[in-house]
Amino acid sequence: MGDKPKYPTILVVVAIFLLVVACASGFIIGTVTARANTDSEATTGAEGTEALFAPFWETWQIVHQHYLEQPVDDVAMMQGAIRGMLEALGDQHTSYMDPSEFESANATLEGYDGIGAYVNTDAELLTIIEPIKGSPAEAADLRAGDQIIAIDGEDVTGMLPELARQKVLGPAGSNVTLTIIREGVEAPFDVQITRAHIVIPSVVSEMLEGEIAYISLMTFGETSADDLRNAIEPLLAQNPKGFILDLRNNSGGYLDIAIDIGSLFLSDGVVAYEEYGDGTRITYETTVEAVAADIPMVVLVNEWSASASELVAGALQDRGRAQLVGAVTFGKGTVQSWIPLENEQGAVRVTIARWLTPDGENVHEKGLTPDYEVAFSEEDMLAGNDPQLDKAIELLSQP
Prior knowledge:
Layout: H1 26-43, H2 45-52, H3 54-66, H4 74-87, E1 95-97, H5 99-105, E2 113-114, E3 117-120, E4 126-131, H6 136-139, E5 147-151, E6 154-155, H7 161-168, E7 175-181, E8 189-194, E9 196-197, E10 203-208, E11 212-217, H8 224-236, E12 242-246, H9 255-263, E13 270-276, E14 281-285, E15 297-301, H10 308-318, E16 323-326, E17 334-340, E18 347-356, E19 372-373, H11 378-383, H12 387-397
Parallel strand pairs: 11-12, 12-15, 15-16, 16-19
Antiparallel strand pairs: 1-18, 2-9, 3-4, 4-5, 5-6, 5-7, 7-8, 10-11, 13-14, 13-18, 17-18
Helix pairs in contact: 8-9, 9-10
């Protein structure tokens, strides 16, 4: 939207067919890089750094002098050292991509070809959130919670889930074999899927019985705020009694888009805060004119509502604008930025900040608790029932 800087919120749990926008935040990259350099020089100095890394270089020399198989791969060892350094931070969202991986992550795709499933790339393994209706993933009976441990016979258990996601992508009409582990199934099993070209709108809207307006928002992409506004206006023209915003299975996206979307339902005031390690706090207030600031409202969330979804839901809950119905959300309360290394040596994904709700709460690793917790079982899904939606309609139908 316009020339505003954009960067992924928090994670990026994404549709398997979508291209992750991994490194789009120029002002964050510059700020973080400058801050890191200043802090490093202040705390260690040249002599301190040299002494600190003496064991590293000693080990480097030992490997070159004594390791059985020579010559060793210096580039692989360097990249391994970077990965080990970042893993030592104990933050699953901070990681390294080598040059080829980073190039692949930012490559432009001709359309979106894949299996058609929303996935979690912040879990330990690439995990299915939900197959898209009518997709190859749905036809193959992939289910929420399925974890992918191999792709075309290649073990991906030690691979970054985002890189595993990229391996699932491929030309429409080609086949991919996924090895799945599923709760309740004793042994892993293979599923062969024929990829297809996937097209899905970010917004689905309709009027429900009882004069209730319903909108499902699937992602926080570049056009999602405009798409949502364009879907809301014709629904409001029908004078609904209430409004349901469905953020279930929405894994997030751009931070500024989340602020814009929250602003559509708030006439003014704080939407969220962003807080850095040094205590610096940025306040995000409403950015666009509200279109639905007064109509009674319920937001649907579940365990796969993450990052930007949690930001919007948390803002509307804290501000008393909407009640939440569903399950405790994913719990992704940090912000990451991809920072390219010099001389095209790949990139480092670093957790740079945490975000807070208007009441100053951070949802990381605990999620948002709905005002009404309502279970949605596999039996409900198979039977075509939606008790969470039913509860939202019940609340909005009350006199």
